[in-house]
Amino acid sequence: MKILALSGSPRKKGNSVRLLDEFCRGAEAAGHEVLFFDVAHMNIHACLACNACRIDGSCFQQDGMQEIYPHLVDADAIVLATPLYYFGMSAQLKLVIDRFYGVNEALRAHPKQAVLLAACGDAEEDTLDALLAHYKALCSYCHWQDRGQALAIGVYDIGAVEGLPCLQEAYELGKSL
Ligand SMILES: Cc1cc2nc3c(=O)[nH]c(=O)nc-3n(C[C@H](O)[C@H](O)[C@H](O)COP(=O)(O)O)c2cc1C
To answer: What's the whole-model pTM score?
Structure first.
């Protein structure tokens, strides 16, 4: 299986990156091919809503998305890893999601499995509700089958995720695909 992994944290050793490391380790142990993109450190611009893709079937912006687009369409699974920023995914990851627009029809025509990995500082019962609702809506619209989430809750500082069960959950998720 070909898995597209998108990491949306600017913290290279952050908590969501650690979840993604473990997920990838599990996926590779199961024999899957993982294509990892550290989108927070790529040159990716916001969608301009120019609708050129509606005419050409592709996005005219020549930036980091051109590396991601071919895999985005043909991957069998997608894993989104993000810190929680003001109740949603990071802006760095949202930029990429908005650019899905450039291949919208092709993307929706290729159903995938999907996984969400997220880290947040607070530990209130509803801390992740908005992010999970967004992820669920994305899955429904993009024809993705949700295969689960690994969530690091109550972790602010880099390294706070170490020793939490969510790391093992991320590994198992990767292995179970
Ligand atoms: C701009 C910003 C916004 C944040 N917003 C939230 C939030 O709404 N809720 C929360 O619980 N934590 C919030 N946090 C804390 C992060 O989610 C937390 O530190 C997380 O572990 C970061 O993940 P990372 O290490 O993968 O970058 C915020 C942090 C930053 C920098």
So the answer is: 0.98
Cα distances from 134 to residues 41, 56, 130, 161, in angstroms, run 23, 28, 6, 23
pLDDT for 109-153, tens place per residue?
999 999 999 999 999 999 999 999 999 999 999 999 999 999 999
CA-nearest residue, atom 17 of ligand 1: 120
**Looking at the domain assignment, is residue 73 inside a domain?**
yes
Give domain status of residue 158, yes or no. yes
What CATH number should be reported for the domain holding residue 149?
Answer: 3.40.50.360
Rounded to the nearest whole angstrom, what is the distance from the C-alpha of residue 107 to the centroid of ligand 1? 29
The domain of 22 spans 6-176
| Model confidence pLDDT, tens digit, residues 45-85 | 999 999 999 988 889 999 999 999 999 999 999 999 999 99
Measured in Å, residue 151 CA sits from the centre of ligand 1 at 13
CA distances from 80 to 49, 62, 83, 116 (A): 23, 23, 10, 5
Ligand 1 pocket check for 156: Cβ under 6 Å:
yes
User: Once rounded to an integer, what is the mean pLDDT over residues 92-96?
Assistant: 98
Count the domains in the chain. Answer: 1
Q: Decide: 87 in ligand 1 pocket, CB within 6 A.
A: yes
> Do the beta carbons of residue 71 and residue 64 sit within 8 Å?
no
Query: Residue 97: inside a domain, yes or no?
Result: yes
- Look-up: residue for tokens 């990716």? 44
Asked if residue 1 is part of any domain, the answer here is no
